[in-house]
């Protein structure tokens, strides 16, 4: 069962603002990534359901976070159906993110009071998701859908929408400011956060620093 209530998850997202989006098949690598962003101040993390054994890695990450990173709220992403949603809720996912809008997933999450963040690319999808109970909608793929200008345009007629752009967001003060100025509620940060060394291994120090800069940029923007 989820360790954090829906309210705790939503509050942490609005205070922390940075949602790393990551998948790796190796649990040890995932733990090091999780620790690096946690040390950088991140308290929300989306692990993506990208491989056949992803649920086993996720279970290990949940246990690790509970034991060693107690404030870290772990959710699952890249989920596109209700069956997979149930599996991850049963394992203890604290929120569920999707690249699409799926009403059965919404019902499954709502039944257990788990925040559900569907992937939207139009105002109609955003609006439909909100009628299905989404508190935060993901815009995916955010840069391709229209970038910060798209969010600004959506927020004009729908200022109540809480939007999480994901896809193409960069962990720099300049780029984060563009999304936040446009009205983003929080941002999903993928590949650009997970800096690599020349040999292809992850640069955990650089990842921690990029996470810290992103969290601080978000906090300063809210002031
Ligand atoms: O699987 C999902 O549900 C996703 O969110 C897709 C990607 O992981 C993000 O779009 C990250 O995109 P980048 O930040 O551009 O690397």
Automatic annotation (TrEMBL):
Enzyme class name: lyase
Keywords: Carbohydrate metabolism, Lyase
Highest rank taxon of the organism: Bacteria
EC number from the UniProt entry: 4.1.2.14, 4.1.3.42
TM helices/strands, residue ranges: none
Any GO MF annotation of the entry: (4S)-4-hydroxy-2-oxoglutarate aldolase activity
Matching InterPro entries: Aldlse_KDPG_KHG, Aldolase_TIM
Coiled coil: none
Record Gene3D superfamilies: Aldolase class I
Entry-linked SUPFAM superfamilies: Aldolase
Family matches, as CDD domains: KDPG_aldolase (cd00452)
Similarity annotation: Belongs to the KHG/KDPG aldolase family.
Description of how the protein assembles with itself and partners: Homotrimer.
Descriptive protein name: 2-dehydro-3-deoxyphosphogluconate aldolase/(4S)-4-hydroxy-2-oxoglutarate aldolase
